[in-house]
What does this fold into?
Amino acid sequence: MKQLLLTFGVVFVWGFGASGCASLGLTPTTVGAEEPPLAVEIHVSGLRADDQAALKDSLCALSGVLSCEVKKEAREATYTLQYRGSLHVLQNEIAHLEHPGLTAQEVKASLRFQGFDNQPPTLAILSPGAGTLMKPEVEVVVEAKDTDVARVEVAGRPAARQRPGIYVARLTLAEGQNTLAVVATDEAGNQANASVDVVLDTTPPDMTASVKVVVEGQVERGSAVFVDGQPVPVSLLGGWRVEVVVKKGQRTVEIVAIDANGNKRIEQRPIGIE
It folds into this structure.
């Protein structure tokens, strides 16, 4: 419910007398133009019929009186006013009317309100938690425990009530970051919002790789060794070892050994076979 209905009823009881008014200690209250006017009832006893009519004219002429009606009975009349202004001012103006003279006997006031709900539902996302998901299908579980929850939506889609206070929606995520926005609305139209960020990652990683083989051996001291045209360090005792990157389609490596006198030996060795 989106409105506040206010009825402010004020009852004045007056008696016919010589003059004057007893102060009843009302606090001045100004009613804003946007608020409903006060409904004021004035009961006056002890007046003749002509005085009752004259009093109606006087009351209707008071500042702030929007409308006035009178219900007459023998020696008693009830005046109903629609009034916008200060009750304290109205009381004083009535007390100082020139004719007829009135004496205040009782003032009563009543307030009537119609309440409305202005609190949003409590809302929590139970699953999934923030983070990375590996599957595009996800079940979103929401807790909205208020008894007046009218609907729950996840990413704009209605969530099904699984049990009291628990709602579930099944979604298909897009690759990358997804924000799962949840809205819970109660019967009064109040809304609560929550969201969780998840990342769907189903893309295989980029990868590069190279294949290396170890080629090693022993050669005459003082000799030089080349593997696939690249020189290889040789120890003082003639041992050598090197890692060779295998090219696409390559099946063998070429090994060349040259001794100190310039004699050369060339061999082709299959990859993976000693």
Q: What stands out?
A: Residues 1-9, 16-33 have pLDDT under 50 and may be disordered. Helices lie at 49-60, 87-95.
